[in-house]
Amino acid sequence: METVAVVGIDLAKNVFQVHGTDASGRRVFNKSLRRASVAKFFANLPPCLVGMEACGSSHYWGRVISDLGHDVKLMPPQYVKPYVKTNKNDAADAEAICEAVTRPSMRFVAVKTEDQQTLLLIHRERDGLVKDRTALINRLRATLGEFGIAVPAGRGRLKRWFQESYGDRESELPPLMRRHIQRMRIRLTELERFIADLDAEIDRDIARNDACRRLLEVPGIGRLSASALVASVGNGHAFKSGRQLSAWLGLVPKQHSSGGKSVLRGISKRGDAYLRKMLIHGARAVLRHLNPKRKVLTRWLSDLLARANFNVVIVALANKLARITWALLNKGSRYVEPTAI
């Protein structure tokens, strides 16, 4: 068999498709592999460039194949799609991946370590539990509202209401509804406990992670933001600049330009929605608790607030936080509070 220089692998649950080419780009093979045969197949190949789309299991396979001596590159699926030359099938997808990974203009996704992947899954689970808790609270308030009992909005107010006022209204409910409300309250308590357990796991990781502690020094970067950013971005070397990181997070304007006319619209909202949400919440908190003694930051924000919509200012500050984050992670430095000029 000719020497293989590049391999594109189309990941799947059980049957994987691999397409290999030599240094000149000529096809060497395009065949399917069972899951159990993938590691053995790459162990028998000489070190080569291996491309795959970034998806649910790509980081795992990236680590496995990298340990066998290959150079693994992950690519966003939307950047691979233009290289599919014919109808969609596994063989065409693997060939497109093999071609896309060799393009000098291609953008890649860094392979995450086990610790990074685990921490991001904890964040994902916590985010899902918070949504479940919000939905349960809304159903609980709506259920009581069906019987003419108005419950104050807000998680803390709901808890106090049950402690102080529910006993006075409980007798108005039928026995079956009282038992149903009790079951909903028990489930709410369990969700609170699960969220607290995950928060403790995140806090323990922050305590032993120097990069997270350095990010916490930045106004607008909280514990969840710092932990998720370090888990997703790592040392920031996958991005050439802070602007590239903010673009990856979807915090830059979306363009629709043609014929020399530049048209900028709202932010692109590409990339990681969870990180973008955390940065925007952090920017909102900075504006809410703005300290006039921070002369430079206040002047920049004040000038921006004078000429732009409040939500535009929030996104601009989130963009700035993303760029600061990249600089701190990429250079390994600490945040320095700006001083007046």
Description:
- The chain is globular, with a radius of gyration of 26 Å.
- Helix 10 packs antiparallel against helix 12 and helix 12 crosses helix 14.
- By secondary structure, the protein is an alpha/beta fold.
- The protein folds into 3 domains: 95 residues, YqgF/RNase H-like domain (Nucleotidyltransferase, domain 5, 2-Layer Sandwich), CATH 3.30.420; 94 residues, no CATH class; 112 residues, no CATH class.
- The model has no long low-confidence stretch (mean pLDDT 90).
- It has a 5-stranded mixed β-sheet, with helices on both faces.
- Helices cover 54% and strands 11% of the residues.
Topology summary:
Elements lengths: L5 E5 L4 E7 L5 E8 L3 H6 L5 E5 L4 H10 L3 E5 L1 H4 L9 H11 L13 H32 L9 H10 L1 H4 L5 H33 L2 H6 L7 H11 L8 H7 L4 E3 L8 E4 L5 H16 L6 H13 L2 H22 L10
Parallel strand pairs: 1-4, 4-5
Antiparallel strand pairs: 1-2, 2-3, 6-7
Helix pairs in contact: 5-8, 5-10, 8-10, 10-12, 11-14, 12-14
Main beta sheet = 5 strands, mixed
Spatial gap, N to C terminus: 67 Å
Secondary-structure content class: alpha/beta
Round the Cα radius of gyration to an integer and report it: 26 Å
Q: Which sequence of strands runs across the widest sheet?
A: 3-2-1-4-5
Tally of domains: 3
Uncertain parts: none
* Amount of beta strand: 5-15%
Mean pLDDT over all positions: 90
Roughly what percent helix?
40-55%
Q: In DSSP terms, counting alpha (H) and pi (I) runs of 4 or more, how many helices? A: 14
